[in-house]
């Protein structure tokens, strides 16, 4: 891990420098060719791409895209009891937090002219969730996506996840799917999985919303299909900013930073403090730990010495990091002033790893500064609103002249006529 101290010149300039460094480490890939192949060739393209990128020990013709539901059930039955207990705890906590976010009660507004507008909240018909693979299996990502979708009331949930070189999906991932009641699992990864979920193929029916974390290829594919389907966010490489006080344990901080570097290349790692000695200790320890296998060898840790804790919060709000750890003793006060982070971990014991797995918060979070306008994955991602308008005769009579006035101003006289013919009927009804 490379450590790069940044000179403090204000929050906006520091945030810009950090983002520019991340962009150099992980430029966005071009997913257009993959999208075109999936759209034009369907299952044949999915098999060829899966054999090329994931199931490298198998020929395209030998691959089954959909995992047999019996294999999914068997994976859960054969799961290590300790892992099953931990996954069940995570599922319960994620579900409890998701349930707390829901308000499904219809809302009806009665307006002075006599009309009513009712808003209903409905689940989407089908959700596609993506669980990363490749370097590791991510049963936790299955839970983080599937539990909120289930709480939201989605009837059909389809999981796409990369197979291993032998063409099989990891048992832990299948077991997590079974825990969530998912029997529709596809052994497909990367950008091609996103395009298949959005547009469909001979084997896969298209979905309405796609959610889940992934690498830069997955992120760019989600960007490409956004509008054809709904997406949760453009979640990219993992990010962690931590704010350390002079009493913070630099060893804990360094482990937390290196843990996020296990997710792969292109992530944003930042340590900020008013104490230069603490920053130096964090940087030295992180550089040592960064030599471990599995940690991104190209990871960059930016360290920033700041004049005050308030400046640290200002930097966090400018950067909008995916994860923000507040290791400062005054963490709770600082947390209330943070407005843009994806998820805040307040206090020295609040490692990001707890949120990644079992705390109950969701680990599918906005990256790349998207915390300025979006937040954690939740049931709202899988729900939509629909309005019902009721205009009784009396209300039509009162509203129609205003419709006609505005419509004529906009050059749409027939809009006005459409309202006014109801007004005449409304006048008769009132009499």
- Quick one: how many beta strands? 15
Per DSSP, the total helix count is 16
Distance between the termini: 82 Å
Query: Hey, roughly how much beta strand do the residues contain?
Result: 15-25%
Global outline? globular
Radius of gyration: 25 Å
Q: What low-confidence regions span 5 or more consecutive residues with pLDDT below 50?
A: none
| Class from secondary-structure proportions | alpha/beta
- Describe the sheet with the most strands: 6 strands, parallel
Helical percent range?
40-55%
Give the mean pLDDT. 92
Widest sheet: strand ordering? 1-12-11-10-13-14
Describe this structure in words.
There is one protein chain. By secondary structure, this protein is an alpha/beta fold. It contains 16 helices and 15 strands. The chain has helices at 11-25, 32-41, 43-53, 69-77, 81-100, 139-152, 171-179, 190-199, 216-225, 250-261, 276-289, 309-319, 331-335, 352-357, 393-410, 413-430; strands at residues 2-6, 66-67, 107-110, 116-123, 126-130, 156-161, 184-187, 209-211, 230-231, 239-244, 268-273, 300-305, 323-326, 343-346, 383-390. The strands form three sheets. A six-stranded parallel β-sheet has the order 1-12-11-10-13-14, with helices on both faces. The chain has a six-stranded mixed β-sheet with strand order 2-7-6-5-8-9, with helices on both faces. Strands 3-4-15 form a three-stranded antiparallel β-sheet, with no helix packed on it. Helix 2 packs across helix 3 (43-53) and helix 6 runs parallel beside helix 7.
